[in-house]
Amino acid sequence: MAILRFKAVELAQNREPIKVKLPSGKVSDYFGVNVFGMEAMRATMSNDAFKKLSQAIETGQTIDVELADAAAAAMKSWAMAKGATHYTHWFQPLTGTTAEKHDAFFDIVGPGEVLEKFKGDALIRQEPDASSFPSGGLRATFEARGYTAWDPSSPAFLMELGEGKTLCIPTVFVSYTGESLDYKTPLLKAIHVVDQAATAVCELFDKDVKRVIATLGPEQEYFLVDKALYNARPDLVMAGRTVFGHAPAKGQQLEDHYFGSIPSRVRAFMVDFEQEAVKLGIPVRTRHNEVAPSQFEVAPTFEELNLAVDHNTLLMDVMEEVAERHHFKVLFHEKPFAGLNGTGKHNNWSLGTDTGKNLLSPSSKPKENLQFLTFFVNTVKAVYDNADMLRASIASAGNDYRLGANEAPPAIISVFIGEQMTAVLKELEENANVKIEKGENLYMKLGIDKIPPILLDNTDRNRTSPFAFTGNKFEFRAVGGSSTCASPMTILNLIVADQLNQFRADVDKEMNKEPKKEVAIINVLRRYIKAAKPILFEGDNYSEAWAKEADKRGLPNVKSTPLALDFLVTKKALAMYEKYNMMSKEEAHARHEVMLESFIKKVQIESRVMGDLALNHIVPVAIAYQNKLIANIKGLKDLGIETDSFKTISETIKTISQHISIIQTQVDAMTEARKEANNIEDARARAIAYDEKVKAPYFEKIRYSVDKLELIIDDEEWPLVKYREMLLLR
Ligand code: ADP
Ligand code: MG
Question: Any bridge partners for residue 216, and if so which?
Fold first, then answer.
């Protein structure tokens, strides 16, 4: 094993940056060339068909067979002209990754005879052999097999990474009886309900608004590890994170990596995956180091939510593929390395109108500011009322290691709004029962005439907050690095939609008493501010004091996934899904079960890897080293050297013995605990057992002893690639 380690280190050290050839010096020359977007559509379809299709896409109308046939033909000729031989329905099953099933455009059915396979019906509907995708008993309950259905609102694209070139068609994945089996279906529904609710609220301010579009800009963090080093760490390979490893002498204490220059191998990788992303129409933009060594970030410019979610998922795939060329492995896991920053995916979210206005951007015009305040306060209220659901939407085995660790937001959901907005809300709240006399400036009297439109320059952004207002958008920072944005975004948009509907109703009611619309709006907002105030927190979210304070305020603080997931199936949550026709009770429970099973599997794998590494890799090496020391003492004794002079060596032998004994007994006990947990029928109870009886009592304990041994045992013999070797990339 140690031999493997040194071979890997040598390989990694001798690698040179891979040369990257860009298609052109100008990004605009190749942006979106692999996307079947509007331009490609226009070029390959008849005028009439193009008009119909683009309109259907814009308005979300259903597409008839004739139009689907035309679209399929156009897509096929476009893709084949670019060298594609296959097509696939691309979808996002509940495993959290993407899935595809490749089909050739044609089948050879006889000499000189081909069967045209890609027609409108193949575009619209496919039956993947999806029996292995998790569905939480849904398929059993509902008999149905699943099928994938074209989502025309996200454009088809050409994947040229990996083998061959394939036309990928974004789809939803549903059962024949209509239950959703993926992340996209509920997301599309949430996007629709927030559009309707927000448009109805916009009516109060601006009759021109016909549609509201949710937007997302996800900042993706990641670690890079050399491929050879990665392969020499079975825990990384199997669990995506290191279960052992002592912090290096030089970690992130100096924070010098953050502003440091990007190593040349990494830079080449970035340039390469960025060009592939750009070809796929993903507007990647920023590129920089993160705080931890070997940690980086990529952020695209924000886009329409559904597209942004697809793009983030696709970007992760692209990064993994391109990393191969550069002999890297990309880690998206929330906590791959103990003692270093974890990996998050900040979800920057806002609502924009079809007239081009960002509804969460303050303006210099007082009237527009009332609209801004409306959306701002309603979002805060939605988060307050449904902090539990938001918490659940980001729950995963990986994120459990990150949330509440000292660099990541805690499991308590609160909202940071900054000094200026705090002052604005305070004034609004206190300025009760305003009477507007004729000729008076309403906005001035209400104190909202001069919200500075430069909140963007907020330098006091609170990096510890899980949900922060950052000037013209909210940033949901608690989302885990490996998770899909679909889950938190579905919940966020759903709860905001529900809140906006409530608001519209409250304003209509208020106007019975207070005919002046603006004053009625203010009155309702004021009540909301009062009610939602406990969710606002500007201080240090990492502090012990905040946990206490949050408890007093009644904010949920659930630290583990199996318990947090309960919030997705409360009476309140189920009622909300039903109200917006998002999913049935059965579907919600089925999803809940899928997530519990996923949690269980992950903890189970980690526990197994841990046991295997500890007993088969670490303990034998520790014993061998111990024997060396014993032999050494014997030799010293034979020479007649005084016992006193090798006291430290015998101490070391004792320490090694103690750690070995701890490791062996704890691994045995952990294995027993796993067996007991496996016997539990109920998924929730089993997940809790895995969390409380397998993970909590043993993981840290075993790790502690292994990491101590790493410090004692001869570096030449240590079998696992060390942190410093994995992390300090040149
Ligand atoms: P940070 O300082 O947090 O890194 P940036 O200015 O780099 O912030 O922006 C982060 C992300 O926020 C980018 O992806 C950006 O496109 C996105 N963003 C900006 N405006 C909006 C908006 N209106 N809706 C959604 N995302 C937005
Ligand atoms: Mg950010």
Answer: 303, 349
Distance 215 CA to ligand 1 centre (A): 10
- Which homologous superfamily does the CATH classification assign to the domain defined by 31-182? Glutamine synthetase, N-terminal domain (3.10.20.70)
| 217 CB near ligand 1 (under 6 Å) | yes
Pocket of ligand 1 contains residue 358 by CB under 6 Å: yes
The b-or-e profile of 687-709 (16+ CB within 10 A means b, else e) is bbbbbebbbeebbebbbebbbbb
What single-letter DSSP state applies at residue 617? I
Residue 260: pLDDT band with limits 50, 70, 90: low
What is the model's pTM?
A: 0.93
Rounded mean pLDDT of the chain? 89
- 403 in ligand 1 pocket by Cβ < 6 Å? no
Q: Ligand 1 pocket, 472 CB below 6 A?
A: yes
150 lines ligand 1 (CB under 6 A): no
Ligand located closest to 485 CA: 1
CA distance 174 to 156: 19
In the numeric block, the tokens 């309900």 are attached to: 193
Q: Separation of 468 CA from ligand 1 center, angstroms?
A: 12
What's the pLDDT score for residue 56? 86
In the chain the first and final C-alpha atoms are separated, in Å, by: 24
Quote the CA–CA distance of 711 and 723 in Å, as a whole number.
12
Question: Given a cut of 60, is residue 256 above it in pLDDT?
Answer: no
The answer to whether the CB of 98 falls within 8 A of the CB of 313 is: yes
Please give the structure tokens belonging to residue 235. Answer: 């825990």
Residue 635, both tokens: 């030799």
CB 646 within 8 A of CB 636: yes
Q: What is the CATH number of domain 598-728?
A: 1.20.120.1560
Tokens 């079975």 — which residue? 234
Which residues are placed with Cβ below 5 angstroms of ligand 2, an ion?
A: 219, 346
Percent of the chain at pLDDT above 90?
69
Percentage of the chain modeled with pLDDT above 70? 90
Q: Which of 671, 657, 650, 669 is nearest to 708 (CA)?
A: 657
Q: Tell me the CA–centroid distance for residue 465 and ligand 2, in Å.
A: 11
Alpha-carbon span 187 to 153, nearest angstrom = 12
Give the residue whose CA is nearest to atom 11 of ligand 1.
Answer: 217
Domains of the chain, residue spans? 31-182, 190-227+289-298+324-582, 598-728
Are the beta carbons of 295 and 341 closer than 8 angstroms?
yes
Q: Please give the single-letter amino acid code of residue 200.
A: A
Residue 300 CA, closest ligand 1 atom number? 14
Residue 282 Cα to ligand 1 middle (Å): 15
DSSP 182: B
Task: Give, using CA atoms, the residue closest to atom 17 of ligand 1.
Answer: 217
CA distance 123 to 125: 6
